[in-house]
Amino acid sequence: MYLRVSRDLFLQQITRDDQELQELRAKICILEVNRADDSQRVRGLETPRGEVETLVSLLSKRRTHYKPTSIATRGKQADFRVSTAYPIS
What we know:
By secondary structure, the chain is an all-alpha fold. It has helices spanning 2-65, 71-85.
């Protein structure tokens, strides 16, 4: 009788372990699918990121090359043009 009880307990434990193992395998499968989806999303985001970085670098080069003048500087330039065009005697 003792052997029968311990055998039954042993079988129950094995059954529980098998169920837990199956649950863990299912979770692993889900995680692998999610990882594949995430890596695909990352690859999709890397391409636009490279394009954005290129555009930003071009924009900064253009800004340094074509520095906009301030409103005050434009006003002084206009005053200079007027005063040189019509000199005051």
